[in-house]
């Protein structure tokens, strides 16, 4: 959980972070937010009456018309919750609500790796995979419940179809590594029983063949999805963020670019590039503030 204070111009005056306890549900997070607001204001030496608005980047689909959360896939108690209205009541100023990948994409388009270019397609790869399409500095939201959900494109896996995030997310990479370890323990003798996606990446960079295979399968699926995005939308730049994007150029970006180049719709093969995000862990905060500035200024 992050709360930031700023002008929506790519700079933060203050930032507060807190660890979410999933067992406490949505009520627990709302209590954390209420406790953090005074701390945030004090850190920035600002008064509450100086606030002009609040932007929210929520980790799940949201409804633009009702300004409510549609669903959270991680935390109970959010489904159907009027989050924008609740925040507005708590803080006493107008609030705007967005999806976290959408607002992260907005931040990268305005202040980060996509600055000065359009369209920008943003992909965040962490425990899941999200996406955002930014056209001329505006989030594309389809009919108002979201768009660009690349993580939910269906991809082939062992004679069935599963969402991309079930193959190429950090969680999926970790789970496949655990299965490989259980079925072929000799090849994983030097590893801890608890594997992370980053450990798999480090092992692959050191020449560990089973780890390289796991990542090749993940990046092949990701490349297919990106090629579909390029064919349908022809974005000028694809920006990849999230925890998995912190894997090295050698492990992630170089093989991914090669796989996409082999498969991409040839008339578009010189229209795009694929780059890492630049705004780091605060990207959603920057995007939420920018959304508030755009909508409420």
Query: How many strands?
Result: 13
* Weakly predicted, low-confidence segments: none
The tally of helices reads: 9
Rg = 20 Å
Question: Could you please describe the fold and organization of this structure?
Answer:
- With 297 residues, the chain is of the alpha/beta class.
- Helix content is 41%, strand content 19%.
- Helix 5 runs antiparallel to helix 7 (209-233) and helix 7 (209-233) crosses helix 8.
- The longest helix is centred in the C-terminal third of the chain and has 25 residues, at 209-233.
Give a quick rundown of the structure.
The protein has 297 residues and is of the alpha/beta class. The protein contains nine helices and 13 strands. The chain has helices at residues 25-44, 83-91, 100-111, 165-168, 170-183, 197-205, 209-233, 249-263, 283-296, and strands at 2-6, 12-17, 54-58, 62-63, 68-69, 95-99, 120-125, 129-135, 138-139, 154-157, 160-163, 237-241, 274-276.
